[in-house]
Amino acid sequence: MRHLVIGASGQVGGYLWNKLNHDKEDVIGTYFSHPVKNQVKCNFTDAAQVTKLIQDNKPDVVWIPAALPDVDRCEREPELSNLLNVKAPSQVGELARDNGAKLVFFSTDYVFDGTSGPYRETDVPHPLQVYGQHKVEAEKFLLQNVPGALIIRPAWIYSEEPNPRNFVFRIVEQLKNGHTVRAATDQINTPTDSRDLGERALAAVNRGDYGIRHMVGPDRLSRYDLALKIAMTHGFSPSMVEPITTASLNLPARRPLNGGLVTIYTMGS
């Protein structure tokens, strides 16, 4: 199969890109603002660029890990969020459909309000913020207009990737610089390793899955517990992690508190 990974410079797209290359699969990867060797620059909001990319390369599978995942920025700039999280993936979905390609779209656990998690695939979304609302809109459009589309919902994606967009990297860098890390005790979720997510997503495509699939890690814990785990794993004192409440952060966008997703998928399935 030939794969097109739109957003192959990020955590999820990067793992897919590297894994598919390692397995000697036929893969094209795109980046926009973070150049990666052997990837193609593409603005996935530009329908003409994406049309040419798909028509020229004729992929069997089109992956969309690309997004604007900055929840607070989405709240401040809803028009930009709508462009990157709704309009662009919707256009790509239609192009994939019209060119006979399977579409895989990465959504989020933030489609839920976090009042009664963990959530199942059959639970009705109720987002608290612009980011979650826009992901719900994209999900609905793709499910209604792109037959066979696969919608994957992860939660709190992390990796060992040395990239400032990566939660683990940000925490380790702060600790290395001697700074205390503040983490919320009242945000509970199911953190997802990008490598595990990539493996399960590839397995789902190989099985021919479609519709909504939750794919998260096995543990359900708070931001504070996760930060503590990261600190101790990297040899830092747990005293460098300060427990706080979400309300004390005064964030622009509301966060789900009692969140997380229920998944039936494990590594290799």
Describe, in plain words, how this protein is organized in 3D.
- The protein has a seven-stranded parallel beta sheet with strand order 3-2-1-4-5-6-11, sandwiched between helices. A two-stranded parallel ribbon has the order 7-10. The chain has a two-stranded parallel ribbon with strand order 8-13.
- With 269 residues, it is of the alpha/beta class.
- Helix 5 links the parallel strand 5 and strand 6.
- It has helices at residues 11-22, 47-57, 71-76, 78-98, 130-145, 167-176, 194-207, 223-233, and strands spanning 2-6, 26-31, 40-41, 61-64, 102-106, 150-153, 157-158, 181-184, 188-189, 192-193, 211-214, 221-222, 241-244.
- The relative contact order is 0.15.
Jot down its keywords:
alpha/beta; 269 residues; Rossmann fold; two-stranded parallel ribbon; globular; 13 strands; seven-stranded parallel sheet
| Shape-level CATH architecture of the domain at 2-157 and 191-214 | 3-Layer(aba) Sandwich
What summary fits the major beta sheet? 7 strands, parallel
Terminal CA distance reads 19 Å
Rounded mean pLDDT is 94
Low-confidence stretches: none
Overall morphology: globular
User: For the CA atoms, what is the radius of gyration?
Assistant: 18 Å
Order of helices and strands: EHEEHEHHEHEEHEEEHEEHE
* Beta-strand fraction estimate: 15-25%
